[in-house]
Design goal:
alpha+beta; Chemotaxis protein chec; 4-stranded antiparallel beta sheet; 10 strands; 25% strand
Length: 332
């Protein structure tokens, strides 16, 4: 990728060329020379910068949702932020985490494969202490989890995957679920050691306790949806989501609108003199016979044919036929 020069660097370069300190011909020769860059095959770059940016945006939302969730569960100050998103071999990730840590192994259909959410013991034990009635401090020595502690941690971390599901909605509807909880990284082998993974590091602070939450997502899991992680697809998905939400909001408001429904017995035309001469007991003949159904209008537009009746001592009308279905009669 070509480096972009700042305005100060451009001014300095032009000044050097004009003063003769630099030769333009020599610069051209350097450009034509073949540039060689070292490449480590053990650290294969499978994610482009575009993919890394998209993963960063997704998990920034995840960090916000996770902050709200843990704050409500622990009833204390919680702050979670994305520190970095990088790609590295799976073996390097395993060697970088503590020998005793909390490893939440999970799957997220329709993605195939397993992923890991690693929680530093300081953070995990601070959560546990807070849930058990403590002030939320981490122990000086990390011991093996008891069955009760394991159950509590499984419960709180399995529910936090709802936040991950919400964060991924703009890209893919996933259904993450906790498969297992491990404490020893050596017993966890979800992919081959040389497989490239995306490592999302979240700095976490609970009260005065700080630590890291790391999401390990293998490239083989994301490979089928890599095209959706491009910036173009990201903005298209966001626009589509906003459009769908607006359409749904309009539909909800329209369905709540109230319309007048009128069942007409019939019509009749009389002269003004006949109208002025009307009195109690007079009968007006209508243009419909008794056997003819009633015209039921919705917003002054005939939509149904019905029959008169009574339901629970109330005058009612039964719909027998639908007319002009799906046709807008706006000529009146």
């Amino acid at each position: 990728m070509v480096d972009v020069l700042s305005q100060n660097e451009i001014d300095a370069l032009l000044a050097a060329l004009s003063s003769g300190e630099m030769d333009a011909d020599e610069l051209k020769k350097e450009e034509t020379q073949r540039k060689i860059r070292s490449y480590d095959f053990k650290r294969a770059l499978r994610f482009s910068k575009d993919h890394i940016r998209s993963l960063t945006r997704i998990h920034e939302n995840f960090a916000r949702y996770l902050t709200t969730y843990f704050s409500a569960q622990l009833r204390t100050f919680v702050q979670i932020n994305v520190v970095q998103v990088e790609q590295l071999p799976y073996d390097e990730f395993i060697r970088s985490i503590p020998k005793m840590t909390i490893l939440n192994i999970f799957e997220a259909e329709p993605l195939e494969g397993r992923m890991v959410m690693e929680v530093h013991p300081n953070i995990a034990y601070a959560m546990l202490d807070r849930l058990l009635g403590g002030v939320g401090t981490a122990p000086t020595k990390v011991n093996t989890l008891t069955e009760i502690e394991t159950t509590i941690m499984e419960r709180i971390f399995s529910r936090c995957f709802e936040s991950l599901q919400e964060a991924w909605k703009t890209v893919l509807d996933i259904e993450p679920r906790l498969e297992a909880l491990e404490t020893n990284p050596q017993f966890m082998q979800i992919v081959s050691p040389n497989e490239t993974i995306a490592l999302i590091s979240l700095s976490t602070k609970i009260g005065d306790t700080t630590g890291m939450i790391n999401l390990c997502i293998p490239h083989v899991v994301l490979e089928p949806i890599m095209a959706r992680l491009s910036v173009h697809q990201w903005f298209v998905s966001e626009k589509k989501t906003r459009d769908d939400q607006e359409i749904q909001a309009i539909r909800d408001n329209v369905t709540k609108a109230q319309l007048p429904i009128v069942a007409e017995l019939g019509e009749s035309r009389i002269s003004v003199s006949e109208f002025l001469g009307l009195s109690v007991g007079d009968v007006i003949s209508l243009n419909r016979t008794v056997e003819t159904g009633l015209s039921i209008k919705v917003g002054n537009i005939p939509k149904f044919i019905g029959s008169p009746g009574v339901v629970k001592d109330r005058v009612a009308v039964q719909i027998d036929e639908i007319v002009n279905e799906g046709v807008e009669e706006l000529d009146e």
